[in-house]
């Protein structure tokens, strides 16, 4: 299954697609969450890394 990165339009290929899974774009390094859109198709959205402590 192939997706397009919403950040850089790069191609992301994955064997298994699981809703809620986080994929990392090999081109730009963006973390992308597998979601289902209104049509019931899988889509990718940029995962927010909220609550992450980056430290000082
Ligand atoms: Zn990308």
List descriptors.
56 residues; mainly beta; Rubrerythrin, domain 2; three-stranded antiparallel sheet; two-stranded antiparallel ribbon; 5 strands; globular; binds zinc ion
Amount of helix: under 10%
What percentage of the residues does DSSP assign to strands (E)? Answer: 35-45%
Which blocks of ≥5 consecutive residues have pLDDT under 50? none
Mean pLDDT: 90
User: For this structure, what is the CATH class?
Assistant: Mainly Beta
What CATH architecture label applies? Single Sheet
How many domains is the backbone divided into? 1
Strand order of the largest sheet: 3-4-5
Task: Report the C-alpha radius of gyration, rounded.
Answer: 12 Å
Give a count of the beta strands, DSSP E runs of length 2 or more.
5
Number of helices: 0
- The computed structural class is mainly beta
Sequence of secondary-structure elements: EEEEE
Distinct compounds present: zinc ion
Largest sheet: 3 strands, antiparallel
Which word captures the global form? globular
**Cα distance spanning the termini:** 39 Å
The third-level CATH topology is: Rubrerythrin, domain 2
Brief digest:
The chain is 0% helix and 36% strand. The chain is mainly β and 56 residues long. The mean pLDDT is 90.
């Amino acid at each position: 299954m192939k997706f397009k990165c919403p950040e850089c339009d790069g191609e992301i290929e994955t064997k298994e697609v699981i809703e809620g899974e986080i994929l990392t774009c090999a081109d730009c390094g963006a973390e992308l969450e597998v979601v289902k859109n209104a049509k019931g198709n899988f889509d990718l959205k940029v995962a927010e890394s909220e609550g992450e402590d980056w430290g000082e």
